[in-house]
Amino acid sequence: STPLYSSAASDVYKRQNQISDLNKTPYQQSIPGTTEKIDMVYVPGGSFVMGSPKSEKNHFGDEGPQHEVEIAPFWMGKYEITWDLYELFVSREIDSKKPEKVEGNDVAIDVDGVSGATAPYVEMSFGMGTEGYPAICMTQLAAVKFCKWLSAMTGNFYRLPTEAEWEYACRAGTKSAYSFGDDASLLDEYAWHKGNSNGAYQKVGVKKPNPFGLHDMHGNVSEWTLDQYVPTVYKSRKRKKSINPYVQPTKTYPKSVRGGAWTDSESRLRSAARRPSSKQWKKRDPQIPKSLWWHTDAPFVGFRIVRPVNPPPPEEQKSYWN
User: What is the C-alpha separation between 214 and 211, in angstroms, rounded?
Assistant: First the structure.
């Protein structure tokens, strides 16, 4: 699948990397009508080697061959989206608080036109906690619509990261199995995983961040990306020295999920580890048809958001929200 904004190649990439240094700072995104803020970390553009070598412990076939990728600069959520934030989207009670003049000028859409999630039929935190804890069990569609809703409320363009952006941000300039090196014995300092999570997710931002200042890129909850999961995509000729690669989805399953979770062992928490979503994540959903918004059997999946430094035009924005 052709990346949505890759061809016009180097020129776009170079322009994006020449953005004024004034933009290259972290910021907090306020949510109108609330005291909630989303911490956004600046991720500089650059190139990296995506995937893992066969020599890496726990390497899996869908992580190769390794290939060089160039990524344009963006901001990324410092933390996974929490229930405090996600429930604002589910309830939609603050839509009327959208100011007449929004903060940003990337997006001009009516918040009333953004589809809303249906209420879940069970309590989707499963008793693991909500205040300061990562939101879970949403479908990729729901995560995408959260981004659209947030964009409408703020005027700044938000979306999910592509799989390449996610790995680039996770690695943060490193080439090792994890962003802190190859020694899995250090995982407890950086990640919540099967061995230390006590059978539940934990509050975001407790563990050490990666070199970019992003928390919980390894473990806690796995994170949605925009891409269709294609196990052999790295073997495509298009992936050789590619720019902002993105496999635009053509079907609901499988999509690409990254980072590993509180339920996973060390192998799934590696920077290069990939995971496909599955219909089985709705196995216990009693509704007919099954919910478009919730995965009853995926208490290990959440998401974080990104904002490109150079936002796409309105027509292209829609493609990331659908």
Answer: 7
Taking a C-beta distance cutoff of 8 angstroms, is the pair 283, 296 a contact? yes
Place of tokens 């990337």: 106
**Residue 275 φ/ψ, nearest 5 degrees:** -140, 135
Residues 249, 245: Cα–Cα separation, whole Å: 13
Pairing status of strand 222-228 against strand 301-302: parallel
- CA–CA separation, 200 and 276 (whole Å): 21
Q: Per residue in 66-111, pLDDT tens?
A: 999 999 999 999 999 999 999 999 999 999 999 999 999 999 999 9
CA atoms 132, 136, 138, 142: torsion sign: positive
| Burial bucket for residue 322 (CB in 10 Å: 0-12, 13-18, 19+) | exposed
Which pairing describes strands 274-276 and 222-228: parallel, antiparallel, or unpaired? unpaired
Amino acid present at 156: N
| Residue 82 near residue 133 (C-beta atoms within 8 A) | yes
Distance (Å, whole) CA 216 – CA 87: 21
Its pTM stands at 0.93
- Predicted confidence (pLDDT) per residue in 132-181, tens digit: 999 999 999 999 999 999 999 999 999 999 999 999 999 999 999 999 99
Angle at 227 between CA 85 and CA 265, to 5 degrees: 75
Residue 216 phi, psi dihedral angles, 5° rounding: 60, 30
DSSP state of 159: B
CA atoms of 256 and 156, how far apart (whole Å): 25
In three-state secondary structure terms, 70 is strand
Q: Which residues of 138-170 are buried (b: 16+ CB within 10 A; e: fewer)?
A: bbbbbbbbbbbbbbbbbbbbbbbbbbbbbbbbb
Task: Give residue 189's pLDDT band: very low, low, confident or very high (50, 70, 90).
Answer: very high
